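hey m, so remember when u said the tokens were messed up on ur end? i reran from scratch. heres the input so u can diff it against urs
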Amino acid sequence: MKILASAIGSLSNAQKISNTFTSKGIKGISMPTISKYLSYLQESFLIQKAERYDIKGKKYISTPAKYYYTDLGLRNALLNFRQFEETYLMENAIYNELIFRGYRVDVGLVESRTEENGKQIRRQLEVDFVVNQMSKRYYIQSTFAIPDQAKMEQELASLLKIPDSFRKIVITGGNTPVYRNEEGITFMGIYDFLLNENSLDL
């Protein structure tokens, strides 16, 4: 549980956790056992699993996945209130709110191909959340701050590669006013997102 609590916002699976134990000299916990523990934690509503979804290929990638804590207070207490990274805690809070509103939430994956030095470079870009509810779909990036143009380009890179016209949203920390840029991407602060149940349609 502490490993998962320390890895909010990171891709993980039973094998990766098993490798972490092995690297610390703990070899008595097998990968199948860890897999069972993960399912027990989900069934107990302590954690929730967000699977990866290939947006262009329209298919799920079962592993690795992201795990989010249902109660951030329990997560913080488990770690003795250390590792208080605002970026990852905000991402977890957004995930919890989306689940509370009745959406299905996955982690998005979109492929990007660029040419560097005459060679085709293939990269996989992540979309923090692919959010679905019946015919509605939203693509959401979570970022605590956008201090410069380089960070802006990094956050928008995956959204701009998505080949459909569903709404694309960037949620930032603080009280950023809601606005839409030239590419049609909506920006809003975490307060507007959390306090307005219709915020995704602003």
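this time it looks ok to me. The helical segments are 2-6, 14-23, 31-43, 72-78, 86-100, 149-160, 190-195. if urs says something different then somethings off w ur setup not the seq
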